[in-house]
Amino acid sequence: MNTFQRLRATIADINRRYQTPRISMSPAVRLSLMALRVYLLFLVGLMVYRFVVLVS
Amino acid sequence: MNVFARIYYSLSKASKAVRLYLVIAGPGIVVMVADNDAGGITTYAATGAKYRYALIWFLLILIPVAYYVQEMTVRLGAVTKRGHAEAIFDSFGAFWGWFSLLDLMIVDWLTLITEFIGMTAALAIFGIPPWVTVAGVIALMAVIVLNGRYWTWEKIALLFCALNLIYIPSAFLVHPSVHDILRTGLIPNFAGGFNGQLFFYLMANIGTTIAPWMLFFQQSAVVDKGMQEKDIPWGRFDTMLGSVLTVVVAIFIVVVTGTVLPGIEIDSAAQAAEQLMKTDRYVGTFLAIGLFDAGLLGAICISLASSWAFGEIFGWAHSLNTKIREAPWFYASYFLTLVTAGAVVLIPNAPLVLITLFVQVVAVTLLPAALVFLILLLNDKATMGEYCNTPRQNLLGGFIVISIVVLSTLYGVSVMFPGLFQ
């Protein structure tokens, strides 16, 4: 197995190990994670917009 | 018991407490003082030059802000015995785990470049070429890290923290008016009215107070040090002492530039040092030494924050208590981050100003997530047990986290759109 394959196997193993979130998904946790997703989408959108404006 | 016996008993009790603290002291002070990194020094120098002493009261507010956030990492590390990256993977799953880990890697690497920019600029004032600074710093950090003991690393880091206090004698050398400092600095006010520019400075000061790497670093350091639940009170004291120290140093920097360079636009701490050299050679020299020390301390901590995080997730041995042959990947990632960041500074015409600005933007993609995860983890009764956040801590911590998220986001946005708050 070469280095790249070993790295892929390790990442797959990490993904398997942490597949299920261990914290109990209470409404507060769900709401916080949803807010984070919206926040990140907004921020990435802003960055992309800025990049497009700069390039054009 | 006579008076002498009572005095002897009290002194011996106090001396025992001090000795015990000196054993526990470390992560809190190191992380807080390292927070006054090259970028932080520039922000404080620019704040002093722009508003003189008028924003000292605002810096004082940052003591509890920094303390409450970092105190949570002490509890989480001491109770779970896991670093922040591992805690996020375990509690929130692989998606949020990879997001945090990769984002941390990018932010840390970019921040490390800014530390090298600060260090090379500081030593350039003394005529030292950048390549010598970069090579010297990497060699010095290799010596510090490769001794194979967390304890030795930490005590050397504390020594550099002590050097950060160089700004205190600098402030005395410029003979500021104590009356002016007390009159204009300690009473909350908005110099020249609350306008966009002032808001930008407030955001910049908040932005330099809590950085994403600090959360990851302190929690991993607490774990590597082997702190237990019983050590939490000392960890808290250590963090509080660090918060006070970092703000005191920041105030003295503001006093120096507020006294000597009022009204001058400061773009970098190195520029401030050069300006000060013209007025007072010793103060300029002190500021340059302080800037180098700040960059070095930042670099020492930031590179470790990433290596610890990767070690936790990839299952590599990841302790400073291990030798290089026992933890090759941990040290390899440490030096890879360090050498590549140093090399970027040496590239002719590298876009260093753009990198410095970009750090702020990338940091705001990670900071809110890391802070929200911190609050959620501290509310996980199953893991934290009696060390879970109380309603009062949640109220206070929640308010601080929301304030930091809003202000640091606005700061990041203002970096992307410079005219927004002008």
Account of the protein in words:
Chain A has 56 residues and is mostly helical. Chain A has a domain at 22-56. Chain A has two helices and no strands. Chain A has helices spanning 3-17, 27-55. Chain A is flat, with a radius of gyration of 18 Å. Chain A starts with a helix and ends with a helix. The relative contact order of chain A is 0.06. The model of chain A has no long low-confidence stretch (mean pLDDT 86). With 422 residues, chain B is mostly helical. Chain B has a single domain (27-416), classed as Amino acid/polyamine transporter I (Up-down Bundle), CATH 1.20.1740. In chain B, α3 (38-51) packs antiparallel against α10 and α10 crosses α18 (391-416). The longest helix of chain B has 41 residues, at 84-124. At the A-B interface, α1 and α2 of A face α5, α16 and α18 of B.
List the helices and strands and how they pair.
The complex is a heterodimer of chains A (56) and B (422).
Chain A: H1 3-17, H2 27-55
Chain B: H1 3-24, H2 27-34, H3 38-51, H4 56-80, H5 84-124, H6 130-145, H7 150-163, H8 167-173, H9 178-185, H10 196-209, H11 212-225, H12 232-260, H13 269-279, H14 281-314, H15 328-346, H16 352-378, H17 381-384, H18 391-416
Helix pairs in contact in B: 2-7, 2-11, 2-12, 2-14, 3-10, 3-12, 4-10, 4-11, 4-12, 4-16, 5-6, 5-11, 5-14, 5-15, 5-16, 6-15, 7-14, 8-12, 8-14, 10-18, 11-14, 13-14, 14-15, 16-18
Helix count of chain A equals: 2
End-to-end distance of chain B, in Å? 69 Å
Largest sheet of chain B: none
CATH architecture of chain B: Up-down Bundle
Total domain units of chain B: 1
Overall pLDDT of chain A: 86
Class per helix and strand makeup of chain B: mainly alpha
State the name of the first-level CATH class of chain B: Mainly Alpha
Q: State the distance separating the first and last CA atoms of chain A.
A: 46 Å
Helical percentage of chain A: over 70%
The proportion of residues forming helix of chain B, as a percent range, comes to over 70%
Shape of chain B: globular
Overall pLDDT level of chain B: 87
**Low-pLDDT residue spans of chain A:** none
Sequence of secondary-structure elements of chain B: HHHHHHHHHHHHHHHHHH
Strand content of chain B: under 5%
CATH topology of chain B: Amino acid/polyamine transporter I
Number of strands of chain B: 0
Biggest sheet descriptor of chain A: none
